[in-house]
Amino acid sequence: MSYNLSYLKTKTINMKNFEDYSTQLTQSVGSKDGLVSPAIANSASFAYGSAQIAEDIFAARAKRPLYSRMGNPTSARLESIMAELDGGVGAVATSSGMGAIAMVCMSLLKSGDEIISIGGLFGGTYSFFSETLSRFGVKTHFFDVDELENISSAINENTKIVFLESVGNPNMRLPDIEAIANITTKHQVALVVDNTITPMGVLPLQLGADIVLYSTTKIISGNSSALGGIAVFRAIEDEDKFKTTRYAELEKIINKMGKMALVANAKKRALRDFGMSASAHSSYQAMLGLETLPLRSERINSSVEFIVKALNEKGLNVNHPSLPTNVHHDRYNTNFTQGCGTLFTIDFGSKQSAYSFLDNSKLLTITANIGDSRTLGLHMASTIYSDFNSEQKEFLGITEGLVRISVGLENPQDLINDILTASKE
Ligand SMILES: *Cc1c(COP(=O)(O)O)cnc(C)c1O
Questions:
Q1: pLDDT digits over 327-369, tens only?
Q2: Which of 95, 217, 384 for a ligand 1 pocket mutation test, highest count of atoms within 8 Å of Cβ?
Q3: How many angstroms separate the alpha carbon of residue 7 from the centre of ligand 1?
Q4: Could you tell me the distance, in angstroms and rounded to a whole number, from the CA of residue 417 to the centre of ligand 1?
């Protein structure tokens, strides 16, 4: 039996904080009857029992597992917890965060369609849009988070997705998600938000997004133990059936699946054919992470503010919207009241100084990951963005001396001491 979460719906979503999710998540991951820790369904296929049941499963009349590429009971449990968390109607777990992005795009786009990508952007997503989807005839237009008028006027009849990240990684620019959702609603384009950096802190579906997705590899699992991703979908409402552009090509599936159409569409038009399916073991790891996610998020978000303030006072060139001089400081205070995740950046001015800082630090782990229990650091220009030309790097805010830091669970004063010492040597 799973824990009844319906009481949460009576609360105003904006009033929720990390503390409220502690009850929801610990209780919904565990069971009151039988196995307390979720079972890992270690089976690629599932026996149907009878020929008739097999037919019913394939026709979606019987709700039973078909084959692990199309869904697995362990992943299904993660999907229902995440759907509840984000206020969606359903979710689909994937092999990785990129798997979730690819699934969403491949399920909604065809050759000739266009994407509008705002802010950010995670290097993998940027390459997927600019190099891979372009080979399939899908064009992406890139904008900064504050170019609302340009975004509005770039939308045309081929625009199917507006994509944004809740926090620009690594430029730390914050989008006004609600203002962007107003534009996508007006123009009937699907808004997809990559909320990897701010789970629970930002609830994109409540702000008007259609789909929210995550790399669960990051803070959700939280300890570098498992690669995974997930997309959470909003319910299709009656009014969506009569509107033109947003879901024009989903008419058949909307008529058949109603509310669940976006979920079914992702499974049928992407997961089934591309196979970016989640492994049961990774879904289990993600659920273990969810149990402590509120605690870890609260700790890390306050550590980030504390560290950034101290380093700024010591004269390091730190970028984070909690600093009063940051362009998005007001937006940080009003829309990101619980913080904006584990990241901040330091610009050391040159590649050489950045390298010496990273090599001198005793606490930082040099790796491309973020959202780990340990504090991680990486020089941006020579790694994730090494293939990018100077124009692309400028757009994404990648300077020669830029180091991205993802704060972990260590004592924040220890981190401050280590960073200050390493930057002086
Ligand atoms: C890491 C990351 C991804 C990709 O996730 P993987 O699990 O590595 O495939 C997508 N978006 C953001 C914001 C990320 O940080």
A1: 999 999 999 999 999 999 999 999 999 999 999 999 999 999 9
A2: 217
A3: 32
A4: 29
Residue ID of nearest Cα to ligand 1 atom 5: 97
CB-neighbour burial class of residue 306 (10 A; exposed 0-12, middle 13-18, buried 19+): middle
Task: Identify the structural domains of the chain with CATH numbers, from first to last.
Answer: 25-283 (3.40.640.10), 293-424 (3.90.1150.10)
Q: Which two tokens stand for residue 9?
A: 């719906």
Q: Is the pTM of this model over 0.90?
A: yes
Write down the residue that tokens 């990051």 correspond to: 218
Residue owning the nearest CA to atom 3 of ligand 1: 97
pLDDT tens sequence across 180-195? 999 999 999 999 999 9
- pLDDT value at position 255? 85
421 C-alpha to ligand 1 centroid (Å): 31
Cβ density class 146-167: b for 16+ within 10 Å, e for less: bebeebeeebeeebbbbbbbbb
DSSP 3-state helix, strand, coil percentages of the chain (rounded to 5)? Answer: 45, 15, 40
Ligand 1 center from residue 369 Cα (angstroms) = 9
Which of ligand 1's atoms lies nearest the C-alpha of 369? 1
370 Cα: distance to centroid of ligand 1 (angstroms): 9
Helix (H) or strand (E) holding 161: strand 159-165
Q: How far is the CA of 218 from the centre of ligand 1 (A)?
A: 7
Give the model's pLDDT for residue 15.
Answer: 43
Query: Ligand 1 atom closest to Cα of 100?
Result: 9
Percent of the chain with pLDDT over 90: 84
For a substitution probing ligand 1, which of 94, 98, 117, 277 has the most ligand atoms within 8 Å of its CB?
98
Q: pLDDT tens across 265-321, in order?
A: 999 999 999 999 999 999 999 999 999 999 999 999 999 999 999 999 999 999 999
Cross-strand partners of 231: 92, 213
- Nearest-CA residue for ligand 1 atom 8 is 97
Ligand 1 pocket residues where CB is under 6 Å? 96-98, 122, 124-125, 165, 169, 194, 196-197, 215, 217-218, 227, 229, 370
C-alpha distances in angstroms, 24 versus 17, 197, 212, 293, 362?
12, 20, 19, 11, 37
Band of pLDDT at residue 224, cut at 50, 70 and 90: very high
pLDDT of 8 above 90: no
